[in-house]
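Example record

The entry below shows one chain as it appears in the dataset: sequence first, then structure tokens.
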Amino acid sequence: MQAVVLAAGKGTRLRPLTDDKPKVLVEVDGTPLIEDVFDNLIDCGATEFVVVVGYKKEQIIDRYGDAYEGVPITYAHQREQLGLAHAILQAEPHVDDDFMLMLGDNVFRGNLADVVNRQREERADAAFLVEEVPYEEASRYGVLDTNEYGEVVEVVEKPDDPPSNLVMTGFYTFTDAIFHACHLVQPSDRGEFELPDAIDLLIQSGRTIDALRLDGWRVDVGYPEDRDRAAERLSESADAAAVDTGEEAVAED
């Protein structure tokens, strides 16, 4: 499956870390954000990357060239940062079939592969990971409204009054139906073409949408303090893995 990586943003909230580099090259625990994204997508079976670049794009292109760890890279250019739905449309000419989508500023450890497997098994038009966050943080994300059966009935981008605290994370799989929806999206009050609005169009048209709970953790690196929090979580995960490995070694002895 191809994988689209959205990496065009300026990262204004991450300044001064992004004064001289694109957001996805900000390092967390010594690793650029985009490399962590690449590694996660490779673990999910990515056969090609389509990287949507914009702000200081030459730094990304010069650093990674035409492949990462043997996986080919194609670059698509978003000349104006007009929202995630607009960014996805820049990748459309390069995508041949169902694809994964990952935001370039998220650090994940969890069940991403379950989303890919669900896409393959159920042939959903969209599948994505969701998680519960504190209500006061929900307005930072695309928020899901569900009915009494737990089915997603609406997705709202960054609402002032969130209908729930269940939000979309930064990992999705789509069929080409998402491109048709993105073409229909109208600019939001922020003047951007929002991905949640495109997904909501799929929902309202009766398309099959699967939302899976994140089993693990994610940090959306939007502010400098988020980078520190992501580094802490990675360190905790590494320590836990080391303990597990040690216990297995003792058991084998």
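Notes for this example: The first strand starts at residue 2 and ends at 7. The CA atoms of residues 8 and 54 lie 4 Å apart.
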